[in-house]
Amino acid sequence: MRLKLVLIASLLAGVVGAGASIAIILGVFASLKPLSSPGPLAISTFVLPVAAVSYASIFVYRHTARRRKLQAVLTAILALLLCLSAFIAASLITSRLPRAGPQPGSAPRDAR
After folding, report:
1. How far is CA 89 from CA 62, 83, 92, in A?
2. CA 33, CA 24: separation in Å to the nearest integer?
């Protein structure tokens, strides 16, 4: 198997697919109001990762001589896992930390 080709194609597909979608989401959809009426830009956030994974799988399939189907499937699975982990990492990084509530031992200020 050409493991380097599978790894490099998967990494590029994960970075390009998830990176483009994350950039669109963070750049354009800063608030959730535009998502109530999805347009072509919102649909492209779903299509870009699928297109990148498909292209990488086809590329690996066409550029290997043996075990083509196995390598193409491995590329698709690895690229999907990388996309998913990039989306999870981006959501964790960009999420807001919850505010801490009042301390248990402190009294409210307007108490008489």
Report:
1. 32, 10, 5
2. 15
CA atoms within 13 Å, Cβ hemisphere of 73: 4
Delimit the domains of the chain by residue range.
Answer: 3-32+39-93
Tens digits of residue pLDDT in 40-63: 877 888 899 999 999 999 999 999
| CA dihedral sign of residues 19, 20, 22, 28 | positive
pTM recorded for the entire structure: 0.76
**CA–CA dist 26, 30 (Å, integer):** 6
C-alpha–C-alpha distance, residues 38 and 48, integer Å: 15
27 residue type, one letter: G
